[in-house]
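idk why but the lab printer keeps eating my pages so im just putting this in chat instead. protein + magnesium ion:
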Amino acid sequence: MKILIQKFGGTSVSTPERRRLVVEKVIKARNDGYSTVIVVSAMGRKGEPYATDTLLSLLSNSFKENNLLVTDLLMCCGEIISSVVMCEELVNSNVKSVPLTGGQAGIITDDTFGNAALKRVDTENILKLLNEGIVPVVTGFQGITPDGYFTTLGRGGSDVTAAILGAALKAEKVEIYTDVDGIMTADPRIVKDAALIKKISYNEVFQFADQGAKVIHPRAVEIAMSASVTLAIKNTMNDCEGTLIGSFAENSVVNIITGITHLDNRLQIKIGQKENIDNKNYHSVLEILARNSISIDLINVFPHEQIFTVDSKNKKFVDEIMKQLDLKYDFTENCSKIAIIGSGMRGIPGVMARILKAIYAEDIEVFQTADSHTTIWCLVESKNAQKCINALHKEFKLGS
Ligand code: ADP
Ligand code: MG
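predcted complex ->
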């Protein structure tokens, strides 16, 4: 049996017209000889009646924070509605179909409500349906604990469901359908002439996803990579070939830079040694923050100061810790971390210099930089992020 996983995101299942396009994709896959498993997200985006954020607004923030088990059950409702509605659409087109919750699809997780980790996948139920020629419509983003509580896999988790099923069912391919043609050289909402990337390695796409490109969940990339399942990102609204993700050799890379993405809501923190001269906590602050589960990045340590960034949602907590440690510090809010990604930059001199020159030409100040073999990061004020991304996109001639 040739198995194909087809995952449809929130915008792809939001209207009857779009759901009919979904049915066409499913029928085409079946005509091509695939046994297909559908994974759906909740219908629509924030503000629409059955979208996850709309459901979440039914509960107060304080209740949600203290009742993660209950919140997960509420969050699961969006995908359940979506799978039922999609099932009717398929049945109306004479495609036999059964909606399945995460648990019915055999996705067994631990009880970390809100961000559950996979324990195992029991594939019997899905395989039985596939053997009978029935299309399972699996609710994305959810699982079940061994004792029967509904869990969710973290925001954007429908991609993760698709990858989990792809790996467990040894699918030939996992197709992620969304509202853009595939992975582009930059978010097409930010860069008008962003170009489609036709082929990309798991490693590079993981960088994209991890550094803010919403188009696929980083964990889905990791799961697909470790199971060697090919991923494809496609547009529900057209027949564009999309982006193919696999273990492509990096020597096939032709450009220095593959693309640019960014993460907003970064808070830069500077701790000077002079201001904290007799404070023994100065040298252990990074370790103490890590022990408090605050993830830090862009870390630069100099003899006279330490600089790093955190997610701004941690601002209050970081402030409390600094007060407890009696450390004086400065911070800059509203920063964005621009990630310039490309395995082609490995061993090429002068890439950082070229990036900085292009940013300075726009009169944008760079607060911090960092680099690895395949990514260069620049921290800028969020109000300059779009201008900065467009300047770099142009500098490296990434446009279509
Ligand atoms: P879905 O609801 O289908 O899961 P998402 O909103 O999660 O869709 O992801 C698709 C969005 O990702 C696009 O609408 C696009 O604005 C955004 N995006 C960000 N970076 C990129 C990129 N490099 N390539 C393509 N899309 C991107
Ligand atoms: Mg998504």
